[in-house]
Structure to design on (450 residues):
C-alpha cells in the first residue's frame, strides 16, 4: 500500500544521522521532525534566522517574534542561536548545513528539481529554495510519486521551470526510496510495503534502475 | 554624542519623496516596521520601489501600501498570501522582481558593505540566470549578482538607543541588519528607546553608524500569520 504523508515522513526520519544540522522545507519535510528518534540529536535550521527549532509553543508561550520559515510560531531548543538572513544563507551556501529535505513538483533522472512555479498560475516566488538546492551537498526530496492527475513526477527531464540542476541525491515517495545515480537514472532502493517493483516502474517516467531483489521499507 | 531621535514615525518619513526606493525589514509579518508603514499610508507618497523579502498580507504590512496604490515595484523572494498583490500584478499595475532569498539578503548586505557584485550558485540553470554573467569556479557554476541599495531603509528593532544602536529579538532580526546598512537614510523604529549607555555594547546587533533616525514606536500589533500551538 502506498504510504501516507506521515509514512513518508517516518521513512525520511530514518535517514537522519545524529550530530547533524538540517534544514526542513515546508509540507511533508516539516513533519519529519516529529519522527526523529530521541537518541538522534540534530539541530534544525530555519532560514529566517534560527538554529535549534523546538516544538510548537503552548498558547501562553506564543511569541510573534519567533517563527519558522513557514511563518508558524515555534519555540527554541536549549543551545539555540539567532542570526540575520545573510548569515543564515551564508551557512547554507557555505555548506555548513548537513542535510536539506524539501518537497518537489518534479525531479529529473539527473537530479534536477522543479518546485517553485507552475506556468499559468500565480507565481509566489522561490523563497529560499534556489539557494538551498544550489548549495546543499545532501538533498532528499519528499513527494508523492505521481501528481493528482496520475502523472509521474519522476521524469527524464523536468517540464516545469527549474529550481536547481543536478542537485537531488535521494527521493522518498509514497511508493519508493530512490537514489539519483551520478550517471543519471533513479535506482530503486526500497519499496513501500506491499508495492511491487512493477508498480513503481509503471509510475516512473524517467529511467528506473532495478538491481536484484528490492527490499520493503520498514516503517 | 550624536542624538538621532525623532519624535514619531511621521517626522521620520517626512522627506521620503515620490518614486523613492525603500527597503523594509521583516520576514512575513515578523519584524516589519509597522509604524513607518502607517506613516507612509498617511503621507500618501506613491511610485515607490519596495525591497522587502515579502509583500505583507492583504490587510497588514506592505499589503496596506499596495491597496493604496503607493507601490510601483516590489523586489522580493516570496509574495504569496496576498490577493491584492496578485490582482495588481496580473493587471500590470505592479512590477515584481523575484530574487532567491539568500541572493536577496546578500545583495543587500553587499550594498551596505561596498561590494558592487558577487558570484552565487543560486539560480544557475533557472530563469533567474537570464541576462546574467555566468562563471565557473572550481568546477561549479555561479551567477554574477549586483548589490542593492536604497534611498531610505525602514527597519524595526526591539531595543535601540539615542545614538542609533539596535538590538533585535528572536527571528524578527531577519533582513533588518543588512537593510540598516544599505540605506542612504536609515530609519529605525524600536519597541524600547533608551538613553545612550544603557545598552550593553557587547550585545549590539546594528551599530548606530548605520542609523540616521530613530524613534520610539507605539501600538505594535505584531500580527502572527500562522499561529501554531502544541496540541
Amino acid at each position: 500500500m502506498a504510504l501516507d504523508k506521515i509514512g513518508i515522513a517516518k521513512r525520511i526520519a530514518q535517514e537522519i544521522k545524529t550530530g547533524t544540522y538540517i534544514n526542513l522545507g515546508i509540507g511533508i519535510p516539516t513533519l519529519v521532525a516529529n519522527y526523529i528518534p530521541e537518541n538522534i540529536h540534530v539541530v534544525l535550521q530555519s532560514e529566517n534566522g534560527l538554529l535549534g527549532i523546538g516544538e510548537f509553543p503552548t498558547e501562553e508561550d506564543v511569541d510573534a517574534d519567533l517563527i519558522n520559515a513557514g511563518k508558524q510560531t515555534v519555540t527554541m531548543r536549549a543551545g539555540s542561536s539567532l542570526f540575520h538572513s545573510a548569515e543564515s544563507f551564508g551557512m547554507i551556501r557555505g555548506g555548513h548545513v548537513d542535510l536539506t529535505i524539501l518537497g518537489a513538483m518534479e525531479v529529473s533522472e539527473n537530479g534536477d528539481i522543479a518546485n517553485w512555479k507552475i506556468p499559468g498560475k500565480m507565481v509566489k516566488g522561490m523563497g529560499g529554495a534556489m539557494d538551498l538546492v544550489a548549495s546543499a551537498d545532501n538533498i532528499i526530496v519528499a513527494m508523492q510519486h505521481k501528481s493528482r492527475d496520475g502523472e509521474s513526477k519522476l521524469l527524464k527531464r523536468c517540464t516545469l521551470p527549474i529550481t536547481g540542476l543536478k542537485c537531488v541525491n535521494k527521493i522518498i515517495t509514497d511508493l519508493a526510496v530512490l537514489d539519483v545515480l551520478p550517471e543519471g537514472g533513479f535506482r530503486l532502493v526500497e519499496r513501500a510495503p506491499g508495492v511491487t517493483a512493477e508498480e513503481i516502474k509503471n509510475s516512473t517516467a524517467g529511467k528506473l534502475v532495478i538491481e536484484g531483489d528490492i527490499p520493503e521499507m520498514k516503517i | 554624542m550624536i542624538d538621532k531621535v525623532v519624535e514619531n514615525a511621521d517626522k521620520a518619513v517626512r522627506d521620503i519623496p515620490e518614486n523613492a526606493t525603500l527597503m523594509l525589514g521583516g520576514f512575513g509579518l515578523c519584524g516589519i516596521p509597522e509604524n513607518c508603514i502607517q506613516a507612509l499610508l498617511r503621507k500618501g507618497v506613491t511610485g515607490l520601489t519596495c525591497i522587502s523579502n515579502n509583500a505583507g498580507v492583504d490587510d497588514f504590512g506592505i499589503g496596506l501600501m499596495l491597496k493604496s496604490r503607493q507601490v510601483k515595484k516590489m523586489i522580493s523572494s516570496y509574495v504569496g498570501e496576498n490577493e491584492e498583490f496578485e490582482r495588481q500584478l496580473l493587471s500590470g499595475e505592479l512590477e515584481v522582481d523575484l530574487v532567491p532569498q539568500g541572493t536577496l539578503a546578500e545583495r543587500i548586505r553587499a550594498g551596505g558593505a561596498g561590494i558592487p557584485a558577487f558570484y552565487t550558485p543560486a539560480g544557475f540553470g533557472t530563469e533567474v540566470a537570464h541576462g546574467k554573467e555566468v562563471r565557473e569556479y572550481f568546477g561549479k557554476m555561479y551567477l554574477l549578482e549586483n548589490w542593492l541599495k536604497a534611498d531610505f531603509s525602514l527597519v524595526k528593532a526591539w531595543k535601540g538607543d539615542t545614538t542609533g544602536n539596535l538590538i533585535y529579538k528572536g527571528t524578527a532580526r531577519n533582513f533588518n541588519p543588512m537593510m540598516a546598512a544599505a540605506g542612504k537614510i536609515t530609519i529605525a523604529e524600536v519597541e524600547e528607546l533608551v538613553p545612550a549607555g544603557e545598552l550593553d555594547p557587547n550585545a549590539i546587533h546594528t551599530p548606530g553608524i548605520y542609523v540616521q533616525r530613530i524613534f520610539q514606536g507605539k501600538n505594535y500589533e505584531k500580527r502572527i500569520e500562522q499561529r501554531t500551538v502544541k496540541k
